[in-house]
Write a structure and sequence with these properties.
homodimer; alpha/beta; seven-stranded parallel β-sheet; 12 helices; 48% helix
Chain lengths: 258, 258
């Protein structure tokens, strides 16, 4: 078992202190360093930093991977290298194999979102989890998939299925991040709609101004016209600030111009 | 308004026949052709083929975009080019702006998964929908975001937020494709929102009337006041009938009373 001792230490101290537990991404037979770097960036965008490589074609460390990963060096520097999938997942309690193609294996197939929920449950229960990704050329071999607890599927357009390694890593990391409670409460909360009384005041003012100008005509259509106007404003979800703005707008419009 | 006539025809015949209705992806100020091509590939993996470009830096068509998109040429060939965001979304009834940064605008912020559900509802109700993506350098400008009904947010790791254009497109297209499987039956089918051009006409009329009456004062606050006004109307989801009603309302209010 080869591994980068320095990187390992870094991932235990700096990274582990800063980054919450997450599944480890295992790239099996990856070829181009650029793709490993791109996968590292994709992962870190969604808080996944544990990377393991099985038989990287061009050896390790890889300058192209480091260059492409710029900014995500915490992932690249902490990567560990293994000779076999078995070794790479030896310390893991739950393993998913990412595939696009149908397999003859009788493993459960879980879509990415459901798989992320499963990973969250296992990790919350204290298990170390891994997600396997195949190389650019052949994807995962059946023997590698057989090592997994389940298959993680990303259903793509059957007429154009060309998800690359970094894109597959992005989708899985993204789904993982969605399961985090922290990611779920949006810091950019929506501003609430104004209270109904403020809105009613606005529509009353508007109706009065329109009434003065003979808008509700012919008379028999008046009630429906008023109702529709009120419905449009009710449904719009204006905020307090917007209702105040619209008061000013109506008052301004009813002034003579120039 | 510039557009590639040939591409347009292609996207109406071949693509439309093969590909189910989906939101249109609008890339605003995209820079590198490679990134446009990568976005096209990301989109088509998840069945999204409608692409519009606003002010592509290196012109259009773009050889690098075509080369990078290889296999996804249906997206590149069908792309239409516009001078402004307004023109690009003129025929759309519901528009989302993808951003990572916090905005001062009072638009609702919807995470990508919820946004995909909204898009599905609007499209099922017959509205043409668009999702705006900013360019590599600056993302979307506040003025562009103000044209949207809501902000689509992709919550990334605050310590490493470097989602690129193709990755953002991938996440949105992926979430969109998931809603197809989820067969959303919405018992209360909504009336579709008016096309953007009608709404823009209404807000233009309103702004002109307010301008004549010295509403946008003091001058330095004018741009923000205009933006907020536009945002309030963009977000309201007025139907065609309501937009017509509001035209009448504004015209009536600007008449002298009595």
């Amino acid at each position: 078992m080869k591994e980068t001792r320095k990187g390992e230490r870094l991932s235990r101290s700096t990274a582990a202190a800063r980054i919450a537990p997450a599944p480890i991404f295992v790239l099996v037979d990856p070829q181009m360093g650029e793709n490993i770097g791109a996968a590292a960036r994709a992962m870190l965008n969604f808080g996944v930093s544990g990377l393991r490589l099985v038989r990287p074609r061009d050896g390790w460390p890889n300058e192209k991977a480091s260059a492409m990963a710029s900014g995500a060096s915490i992932v690249i520097d902490g990567a560990r290298v293994f000779d076999t999938v078995d070794e790479a997942i030896a310390d893991c309690g739950y393993v998913l194999a990412t595939t696009a193609r149908r397999r003859e294996l009788s493993l459960p197939v879980i879509p990415a979102d459901g798989a992320a929920v499963e990973l969250r449950k296992k990790i919350d229960a204290g298990a170390r989890c891994a997600v396997l990704f195949g190389g650019e050329r052949n994807g995962l071999l059946s023997d590698d998939v057989a090592n997994a607890d389940a298959v993680l599927s990303i259903p793509v357009n059957p007429a154009f299925a060309s998800l690359n390694l970094a894109q597959a890593a992005l989708v899985v990391a993204y789904e993982w991040s969605k399961t985090a409670a922290a990611a779920l409460d949006d810091p950019m909360a929506e501003e609430p709609a104004a209270e109904r009384a403020a809105l009613t005041g606005l529509v009353d003012l508007l109706e009065a101004a329109l009434d003065e100008r003979g808008y509700f005509f012919p008379e028999e259509k008046g009630p429906a016209m008023r109702r529709n106007l009120r419905a449009a404003f009710s449904r719009a979800g204006f905020t307090d600030g917007e209702v105040r703005t619209l008061f000013g707008v109506v008052k301004t419009l009813t002034r003579p111009s120039g």
